[in-house]
Structure formats: C-alpha cells, structure tokens
Design brief:
The structure is a homodimer of 581-residue chains. In chain A, α1 packs across α12, α2 (46-65) runs antiparallel to α6 (169-189) and α2 crosses α12. Chain A folds into three domains: 19-238 and 417-469, Bira Bifunctional Protein, Domain 2 (BirA Bifunctional Protein, domain 2), CATH 3.30.930; 255-396, YbaK protein, CATH 3.90.960.10; 486-580, Anticodon-binding domain (Rossmann fold, 3-Layer(aba) Sandwich). In chain A, 47% of the residues are buried. In chain A, a hairpin with a 7-residue loop joins β30 (540-544) and β31 (552-557). By secondary structure, chain A is an alpha+beta fold. The first copy, chain A, contains 15 helices and 32 strands. Chain A starts with a strand and ends with a helix. In chain A, the strands form seven sheets. In chain A, strands 4, 8, 9, 10, 11, 12, 13, 22 and 25 form a nine-stranded mixed β-sheet that branches. In chain A, strands 14, 15, 16, 17, 18, 19, 20 and 21 form an eight-stranded mixed β-sheet that branches. Chains A and B meet through β2, β3, α2, β4 and β5 of A and β2, β3, α2, β4 and β5 of B.
Chain lengths: 581, 581
C-alpha cells in the first residue's frame, strides 16, 4: 500500500496542544494520530487508526495462539446481570448508566465478566465442553473521575478482555499461566518495557492477580520492587514483613504520662525525648490511631480504628484496597461529638476496645511491641503500652504507606519505588461469577460441577499511548516496526522531475514487494518534510534528495538517527534487507 | 486456518427460538451465530463474528477503492454539536442519551454528520485539501421503538458511515456517484439482490437521496416500482402525477345539500348516488379533510387541514416525511371543542380558510376539479365545490396512500408495490452541517468557501441478516463464498481411524493452500454432522464417509444440493478447483 501525504487526511501541528502534559499525548496529537472530542473521548485519524489496528492484530494473534476464541458482546448492556453480581452498585460513579425509551436501565460495559459467564452458561452444559477461553476486542466505557493524558486514560477506550472457564483449580492455573505468557509475548512484540507485579483484585473479586505495568515516570501506578530478588508488587498488594513477636515476660509496665499539647506525632516525639525515658524515641515508637467509618455497600456505617506507627502516613489506596468491597470515610466532628470516648489527639487502643470499636493495626504491631500511644484523656499518653498484653487488636490491616528501603516481603532485600502504567491485568477470579449466575455443568461422574473463571485484560488503545511514551525523542514518535503505520517513509526532497519519478518508482516497487509506504509527494519544502517524517515516526526513512543527481538516495534510521547513502539502483534491495533485519 | 468443531465455541439448536419470526433470525440463532442479550442487542459468537468481519472487509475494500479514508470516531459523543445541528431534539426518543458523573449530557452516536463536519473543520482550511471522503466502521446506537428480527433491526448495530466534502455541487455529485457505484459493487460481491429507490432524506436534511433496498418479503420498507420504466422509489418519496388543471369557465356552481348521517365517505357516496346528481359518484369524487396539529420541534402547535380524495387513506409515513422536521398529532375532542367551526364529519375547505387554518391538498386537487366535500354545518355537504374557484388551498402535500396501479411519476406506466430492507443510503446532504458549524476554507480566489457534504451509510450487521434472509433453505444457511465463515466444511463421517487420518490430512493440505476449513472432528453421529453442515451453511462440504474404504470422498454443493464422489487422491485438487470457480 502506498499512502500519499498529498492525499492523506493529516495535518501535523508545530505546537503542543494546550491540554497535553505528557510526551505521548503531545506527540500523538501533533502528529495527527488522535483528536480530542470530549474529556477522555478521542477520535482516531488515519495513521492513529493504523497503529491501533496493528496492536489489535498482535493481541489477536497471541490470543488465537493460546486457543482463545474471539466473540463480540455488545457495549450496551442490561442492568440485571450487573445487579445480580452487585457491580451495578459497586462500580459507583465510574459506570456510565442510561435508560432506554421504556425506562429500562442499561449500562455501557466497563468489563464483561457477567456477560461471559452467562454466555458460557447459555451454550455449554457438560464437562466435555471445558476448558474454554473466549475473548473480544472492543470499546469499553468507564466514567473516570480524571481522564488523563489523551488516550492513556480515556472514558471510551479499546480493550481486549478474555475469560477462561475451567472445571478445576489446576485448570484455572494453566489458563492463567497461558494468558500471562501470551501477555509477555504481546508486550515483547510491541517493544514495551514492563514489570509484572502482584496486585489486589479490586472490585473484580477473586484471588491470584497480577498487573503488567509499563515502566514510565508518568505512570499513575506506584509499584515497588526488590532489586535483589526481582519481587515486584503494586503498592496496594505489598504485604508488610512483620517482625518476630517479643516475649512478654519482663517488659516494663505501661505508664500514663501527662503530655499536654502533643496532638501531633512530632510534638509527642519531642515530649518523649525531653522526658528522659532512657532511650531515644522516634515516630516509629509511637502508635497513632486513625478513625474512619466503613460500610459494605448498602450497609450501615461503623467505626473502625486503625493503628499504625507514627512515622508513617496512611496510604489511601492501600487502605481502600484493604477494606474493599467496603468503602470508608474519615470521621467528622459530629462523630467525635457522638462518641465522647474519642479524645482527639489522644485516642488509644484501650478506649476503642472498651467501647467495642473494631481496631485493626499495622502488621508491625506484633505481640510484645511497646508503644507510646494515646491514653484516651486530654493531654495524656501511655508509654510502654504493650501489644498482646495491654491491648489486643482485632486483626491487622495493610494501610500504612510503603517506603523506599522497607524490607521486601520475601526477605531478600529492600524495596524501591517506581512508577508504571497498567497495560494488562490477569486474575484468577474463581467462582464469584459462576456462583452468582449458578453456572453448573454436568460433571464426569454425573454430578453438577461449577466452572471457575479467569479474567484477563489488556489495554489496546492505551498501549498505543504507552508505546509512544516509551519510544519517542524530542523530534517525534519512533514506532517499533511491528506497529508502525507504514514500513517505510519515502521523502521526495528534490524538485527535479526525475527525482520525483525515481521516488514514485521506488515506492511502487516496494509496494509490489508487500512493503507499506508513506510517500511524501507534497509540494512542501524539504525542511517541512524532514520534520514531519521525524514527527510521524516511521522507523525507516528514505530521502530522495540532493544526492539524486549523483545516483544516490539516503536511508535514515529513525531509532538510531544514523543515515547512509546508497546507490539508487541498490535502494530497493537495501530497504528490503533493512526491513528484514 | 482449521476450525475444529470439537473445540469451537458453538452449540447448534434443533428448535427455532421462541422470539424469532423471520428465517434469518431463526437460522442465525439456531446455527449459533448470534445470541440475544437484550431487545435489539446481540452478541456475535465465533462463526457470526467471522461473517461480520468478512462483510466489513468487503465494505472496506470498496471504500478504499474510491479513495475514502478510514478513521474512527467515538460512540460516546457530547451533546453540544448535536444541539447546534438541532438533532439532539429532532431525534426524539430514538436517541440514547446519558449523563456523565459531572452531569454533562452525552449521547450514543446514531450517525456522525456533526462530528465529521467538525473533524474536517479541525484539520483542513484550504481549497487545496479538497475533496476528501472519510469513513468509519463502528457500533451505532438507536433506541428503536420496535427492535426486530434479531440483528436485522437492532439498537446496537455495526454500520459503515462515510462523509464526502467537496467545494462544488459538481464535486458532490461525483462523490455521490462514486459511493453509489461502490455500494452497487459491495452488494453484488455479497450476493444481495437489491433495488435503488428514490428516498426522502428524513431527519438528515439535504436533497438528492437514494436508498438501497434488499428485496425481501419481510422488509419493513415498502417501495413502488414501474416495471415499464424501471422507476423505483420509497413510498415516502413518490410524487403524485397530478392531472392537468381544468378551465373554470362553464363549470356548474357549488350547491349545499342536506346530507344527514354522512360522516363517513361510504355513507356520503351512498347519499350522492341516491341523490340523482346526474352522474355516478365514487369515493374519488369526494374530498375528505383530515385535521392534525403540527409543530416544529420546540414550537407551538398549529392546526393544519389536509384534503385528500375520499377513496384514499392517509399514509402516516408519507405524511410524516412530508411534514418533517415538523411533527404532527391528530386533533382531539378538546381541539374540536376549542374550534367550534370544525364540524366533525362535515369539515370543508371554506371554514378552514375563513378561520386562517393552513390547508394543504393532495396534488390531484388541481384547479377546476369539482368536489363533494363538507359544508361546515352538521348534516350538510357541498356538491361541485371547485378548486381554484370556490377555495384556494395553501399548497399541496404528499400524504395520500400510494396504490398498485397508480400512474408512475415518470408517466411511463403504472406502479406496483414491493417490500425491501434498507441496507444502504446515499445522500447529497449539501451544506446543512457545514453551515451549522461554519466550516469555511480558503478558496482559490482567496475568499472563503463552504464545503458541501454527502453522507453515505451501509448497514454492516444488518447485511449479515439480509444475506441470510436471501440465501437459505429449510435446512439452514447458505453463505456466498465471499462471506462464508469458512471455505470448506469437512465432515468426518466414518469411524475408521484411517478415515479420520485422511480427513485430517486433507484439512491440513487445504490449510497449507490458504483455504480455511471447518473440520467436524466431533464424536457425534454422521446424521448430526450432516444436519449441522447444512445449518451452518458453508458452501462446499466434503464428506469423508462410507466411500472411504473404496478410496472415495464426497463433495456436496450447499447451494445446488448436488453431490459427487471423487477419488481420495484427487480430493485436494477438486476442492481447490471448485473453490476457484
């Protein structure tokens, strides 16, 4: 195929769009690949659509290779199945909801677990039919609170989602592994640098779950890794390495001290070090108790106390993930007024336990650890209040922030933080949805069996942005050959008619060899054309320019920036050889 | 590609689905091609999706061949552009509307004129950029009042829509012609029998407009054709052939008669023939006046009188099309009460004109025609009330039904009615949308030029149903080769292990030759397999069955029903030769 820039629906921009902050967004707009229609809603212009389709092709090839079968479900979905699974409510404002002319409720599908479970239930009824894996590539909808960075976090976006159905846990593990491997191959083919991190499963339910994060400084997902062991996890999924419990025998008794004006950890630590307790005190020796209210959707609000070492902040995402599916809010003045045992700045474990308030602590608060913490009276704190002796929490909670230098959960070294963009997600969902829809099939022994599901997603349109994010320079995009909108970009940079004819001939020969060509046959100046070739980012550029008179054309490598001249009659062979490498 | 039925996500059904009335719907569900999710909302299972993709491929090839460029706009669209064009209101309840979390209004795109006009405005600004034609293949949404016949009339459906932008009317005519020709090629390749009919443009605005109707008894569109001239038109678009005006001189004067109890045309005709008027009277000699109220969207309701010959009914679709974009309702008892000059059963032109009510008549009511019509008093009618002498209508309206035997508008013969399914539509839209969005480009003379638009749609998912509707028998589907989900269906109908191996070898050799194969390798009986091969509808079936022991396989033609035996060693060559034909 030859694409002539004189005909192509394309207008490149010299200036960055005003609303763009990240390189991929700036460049994809400047290069005329995408255009904004509304917040988080974009259109794909011809070259952008080609890249999108190339990504789709790679994804489909790898899905087909693991025996997944493509189907296509609608985006417009009835409420009932999502009511059954409770996600109609759980999704909250992220779900686009609408009504039809008869007042029936519909939604725009954010992900399709319910529909695939029902689809399999509708067709299959015997163990002989399993395992089966289905997938689709399709527009999905999420009403993101903060759509961001162009197509990176959109409200309408293209996603490949697949769902495996197995009769045994081992089967599910195999399907999961097959997907994980396929995702690794997809990302390798697309030239995406990524890490696989342990993840919580969020509103999806289920157990084993990993995320594929593209490495990127502009990523919204923070993850941590242990360079020594290779351990990597989403911050929400990091399990704190708890210390060994300490024998209670011989620990000093708890004492109440007057600590006026120590509502903050800093002032408390200052007091402690001035009080000559016989040791140097840091925030890590204090236990601060944060009060929230939680409820499961539709339920009653209940008080919850969370105790974490005073040198750490609560990480809202970790707290949210730890409480899910329950939601939470911080308590208000009214709550303090209604619960007079809560003394602001001096809340301690004892009042919570005495008043039957659920109390969860950081995993570092093991038995035998001694804390400086609130004594539930204005201006008073305990010193040496010992866990497992003076108070007994109702359990632990992963709510405290994770820091660079924290020990890796596997004990192999320390954690360092990095940022990434979620591009894929694999889940062992289990039977949450097959239970909800009572999917039973006849087992080998004649008894009903309930299939177990895996759910797997890869962000197709997001990957276009991620590839642009990881492969660009200050001049423009640099597409990996697998997804480039063309194989070769031929620039006519010589007004001589014979040069034009030569370029046309070369393009035509390349086309006959199955090579897709962008041919810049516009009347613009060579400078404009070179700039556009850099901006558009086809990996191999052929310039028919000054050297034409001496029988030479120039080959430019968009990735390395290197260029070399080759004799005109050898140009076709050289280009084909370069593309083969 | 080899698709093994032992693995394929497919369950064929022996019984017709309860909600299906038309053959394509029954068969596409029974053969496991599509499944219902909600009214007018379907999912595509593996084989259905393949057929859909084949139709898309043919459409894309023909669009690319006329130089149209593919882009992709979102389905989720902001309200503002549709507000500007007035279609946010005009579309009425057919439009799916929704709000995002911030309360902003959105819609699900039913068609994209607004967005394409804005897209071209955003990129192009000079006469040098034109003409340009853009297209997309995409899910569209219309909240049909009566979703019908499976995927034939869905609420979420796949459509190819394209839009041409030209600077001159001649250019628009060329773009229109190119699309018209492309649609003819598409339908020919898909094996669809169709007619092209003149059409009104409905809510789209604009002038020249034709519909491609697939011939089908189950079609919802009634069209008429003149067998003598080849004229064909949508019923809404038929222009009545008006008779010549009659000189007024010498016509008898109008007389008022007592006609008690003649509220209906039948009773009026009976009275007239009993009254010895000196001629035989039929309903065609009477003029009945129907009262409606109309308003442009957002405007006030106004009375409108419509006069048509008494032997014809009002055709609601024609009336609706004639009044568009205004809407109408029949008047109520309250309206009669508020307008005492309207005497039910005796309404005549005179009271309407005396009371400044707009009055439109059928084109047959030309000057000099004499009518029996209401005299605006209880139990009284005029005889010989002459148009152009005794009353002067405000204009004509195409509201009366069209009948078999009516003269063709081109005067070449008579009209006969037939039914069809709209599969394509081509419009010369003109400047409705470029005016609305003030799309100006720099003209060759330095002055601004406003591009003129064409709009062209073809129903991709509907075509799957139409092909099934036109190509099936009582045993199942019969796909034309261009869209078949596979090239060959190989049935293993012999339990002998060597037969199975032979079938596998044949499938593998076909695959290597680039032929896509469905291989029925299930353990089912030959009878079940034969039935499924007929139901699924691949045009060429190879049976490795009884003849295997004598070195023979059977080739079955699904279209003709013919079968022949060929020697096993010649099977590959025979299949390839058959596919080439």
């Amino acid at each position: 195929m030859i694409t002539r820039l004189s005909q192509l629906f394309l207008r490149t921009l010299r200036d960055d769009p005003a609303d763009a902050e990240v390189p991929s967004h700036k460049l994809l707009v400047r290069a005329g690949y995408v255009r904004r229609i509304a917040p988080g809603v974009y259109s794909w212009l011809p070259l952008g659509l080609r890249v999108l389709r190339e990504v789709e092709r790679v994804v489909r090839e790898e899905m087909d290779a693991i025996g997944a079968q493509e189907i296509s479900l609608p985006a417009l979905l009835p409420r009932e199945p999502y009511e059954t699974s409770n996600r109609w409510t759980e999704y909250g404002p992220d779900l686009f909801r609408l009504q039809d002319r008869k007042g029936n409720d519909y939604l725009l599908g954010p992900t399709h677990e319910e529909m695939f479970a029902l689809t399999v239930k509708g067709e299959y009824n015997s163990y002989k039919d399993f395992p089966v894996t289905l997938y689709q590539v399709q527009a999905k909808y999420r009403d993101e609170q903060r759509p961001r960075a162009g197509i990176l976090r959109g409200r309408e976006f293209i996603m490949k989602d697949s769902y495996s159905f197995d009769l045994t846990d081992e089967g599910l593990a195999d399907s999961y592994r097959a997907h994980r491997d396929a995702y690794e191959r997809i990302l390798a083919r697309l030239g995406v640098k990524y890490v696989i991190v342990s993840a919580t499963s969020g509103a999806m339910g289920g157990s084993a779950s990993e995320e594929f994060l593209a490495e990127s400084e502009i990523g919204e997902d923070t993850y941590v890794r242990c360079l020594e062991s290779g351990y990597a996890a989403n911050v929400e999924a990091v399990k704190t390495l708890a210390p060994q419990p300490i024998p209670l025998d011989g620990l000093p008794a708890a004492q109440v001290h007057d600590t006026p004006g120590t509502e903050s950890i800093d002032t408390l630590v200052d007091w402690a070090n001035a009080a000559e307790l016989g040791r140097t005190v840091t925030g890590a020796d204090t236990l601060k108790n944060i009060m929230v209210k939680t409820r499961v959707p539709g339920g009653e609000w209940e008080l919850l106390g969370i105790g974490i070492p005073g040198d750490r902040e609560v990480d809202e995402k970790r707290l949210e993930a730890a409480l899910e599916p329950a939601e939470y809010v911080l308590i208000t003045e009214t709550d303090f007024a209604n619960n007079p045992f809560l003394i602001k700045g001096y809340i301690g474990p004892k009042a919570l336990q005495d008043n039957d308030v659920r109390y969860l602590v950081d995993p570092r608060v093991v038995d035998g650890t001694a804390w400086i913490t609130g004594a539930d009276e204005q201006g008073k704190h305990y010193v040496d209040l010992v866990a497992g002796r003076d108070f007994t929490p109702d359990g632990t909670i992963e709510a405290a922030e994770v820091r660079d230098g924290d020990p890796s959960p596997d004990g192999a070294g320390t954690l360092v933080a990095a940022r990434g963009i979620e591009v894929g997600h694999v889940f062992q969902l289990g039977r949450k949805y097959t239970d909800a829809f009572e999917v039973n099939v006849l087992g080998e022994n004649g008894k009903p069996v309930r299939p177990t599901m895996g759910s797997y997603g890869i962000g197709v349109s997001r990957l276009v942005a991620v590839i642009a994010e990881q492969h660009h320079d200050d001049k423009g995009l640099r597409w990996p050959a697998e997804v480039s909108p063309a194989d070769v970009h031929v620039v006519i940079a010589n007004k001589d008619e014979s040069a034009r004819e030569g370029a046309e001939t070369l393009a035509s020969e390349l086309d006959k060899s199955g090579v897709s060509v962008i041919l810049d046959d516009r009347k613009s100046s060579p400078g404009v054309k070179f700039k556009d070739s850099e901006l558009l980012g086809v990996p191999l550029v052929v310039v028919v320019g000054r050297g034409w008179a001496e029988g030479k054309v120039e080959l430019r490598d968009r990735f390395t920036g290197e260029s070399r001249e080759v004799a005109t009659e050898r140009a076709l062979g050289e280009v084909l050889a370069t593309l083969r490498d």
